[in-house]
Amino acid sequence: MGRNRFHGKPSNGDVVFAVVAGFLFLSLPLVCFGIRSFPVNGEILAQVGTDLISFTEAPEYRNGVECSNKTIHIAMTLDSEYLRGSIAAIHSVLRHASCPENVFFHIIAAEFDRASPRVLTRIVRNTFPSLNFKVYIFREDTVINLISSSIRVALENPLNYARNYLGEILDPNVERVIYLDSDVVLVDDINKLWSITLQNNRVIGAPEYCHANFTKYFTETFWSDPLMSRVFASKNPCYFNTGVMVMDMVKWRAGNYRRRIENWMELQRKKRIYDLGSLPPFLLVFAGNIEPIHHRWNQHGLGGDNVKGSCRSLHSGPVSLLHWSGKGKPWVRLDERRPCPLDYLWQPYDLHQHKNQYQPLD
Fold first, then answer.
1. How many angstroms separate the CA atoms of 83 and 120, rounded?
2. Tell me: the pLDDT tens digits for 118-139?
3. What is the pTM of this model?
4. How far is CA 280 from the centre of its chain?
5. What is the mean pLDDT of the chain?
């Protein structure tokens, strides 16, 4: 959510141009039937102003002849701060989906926001008239008393913790869901991620990063306590990013994992055992026991770290999903005309009308 200005000067312009050009080619729409702007509703304008309602209607993406009737469930959060990112993320999923009409979005809206859930619903519907989706209201009092201070204020937003409560928020007939952060774009078919099998009775699947220094995610208070640190004694825990997860909601509900996460959050309020928002409780419950998914499904960290938000490069290997986790967000840096090179990969999915020309300053 930070809005600092950053310079992004690639060391090798030709290489950066080739990478960006390749991704722009891959992002061409599969099927579309025209683009138009939607009329401004007086209620929407009164609540949020023109900056939030200025979206172009997305192309209409249709299923191919070989699509089945299976539904792919995706859960995302939505508020005015990240609205532009959420719209781009939805657009990217539809653009690259082999069966876009099979995708159903479960959108969790902030209870207290300058744009009400009703207004946000209208914006999504106007931008994606044929989208299959449902909007849920996340009650902030569910978690507000469990949130502790973090290294970045943005990480204290109650909506960041909505994924802890998917078992209660989503309809009981939703047995499996892909959770996506609002600062991602897909450049591959979501059906491939949906088709991943969670083996050995695992509850969630996500890319693991076992080379990362796992100890840094918890304080000395945690590691020096033999009872607390014993939670990892029989495991080989690795860091994983909670912004992209395949979740078995049947096992999640049966195992009462919401309560397991809350237990650690309650302990955090008494003893400072971590500093990084909503991620550490997930690590405490799941690290060492998740289904490892290929790293291509979460090229994370493109927003830099949580302090400076400086420019990052892609990890080596293939890419199916780009994730601007960290302080820097592509729509902010592009609007400020100080983008990082990889921010241009986000641009083709941006449906905001009042975007700048996206030209970096000299």
1. 8
2. 999 999 999 999 999 999 999 9
3. 0.84
4. 17
5. 85
